[in-house]
Design goal:
single chain, alpha+beta, 4-stranded antiparallel β-sheet, 3-stranded mixed β-sheet, 11 strands, binds calcium ion
Length: 260
Amino acid sequence: MRNRTAVGRQSGFSLVELAVVILIMGLLLGGIASPLSKQRDNARFGSAETQLEDVRDALEAYWLVNGELPCPATPGSNGTASVNGGGCTRQHGFVPATTLGLRGSRNDDNLLLDPWGSVLRYSVSASDANTNGVWDFLSDTEVATITLAGMTPELTVCSTAAGASASACGSSGDTVASAVPFVVYSLGKDWASFSSADQLENTGATVAGGPSGIRYAVSSNDVFVMRGRSEMVGAEYDDLVTWLPALVLYKASIDGGHIP
Ligand SMILES: [Ca+2]
Ligand SMILES: [Ca+2]
Ligand SMILES: [Ca+2]
């Protein structure tokens, strides 16, 4: 009996030893979990970049075939391009994934989602260089008539919102791309809560909700910000923005036989 007690003490763990083991395991798991969540974040940013490229390619293909861009989807357009007269219901809206035939997760308003479950935004130029009431990039006959030299796509991408107006960057040094026909963007991981001016530039206005009642924020003007990711409080940025230059679209118009 005495021997058995002695053996039990030798082979078992005391509460203190157990606590130390749990502490070490916790530290080890914490050390693994942090890099794992970082890896998951990086994977999602990678997927989002691929997704934006796919959307951009689909828009280029749409242009090649039709000689014009599709209008953005609206909260109530069920994922389709929302046309309004010679223009669009919304200049700043969402990727018309149904019109483009894009695969991917959709929300209750049938809008295409990014890897974080936020809606992909899409803006088109509402420029009307020949002032005929028809948006120049929304009609193949406009492009043929106006030609590249006369086209004045109005979207601008800046590296910072500082000093930017509703139509231009604060300085030429802040300009990443000007005269852009369309912009597609994801609000990134922090889409649900952010406060930096650079990210607010991409989501300046909240628009009326769709059938689901979800309300969405999109740019309220022709200026967008794209810069490197940062988690610095007050200056955080993780949006992903892409576009194509007018020159590429114009070449596609020639290749597609829309311009002789
Ligand atoms: Ca026009
Ligand atoms: Ca963001
Ligand atoms: Ca803006």
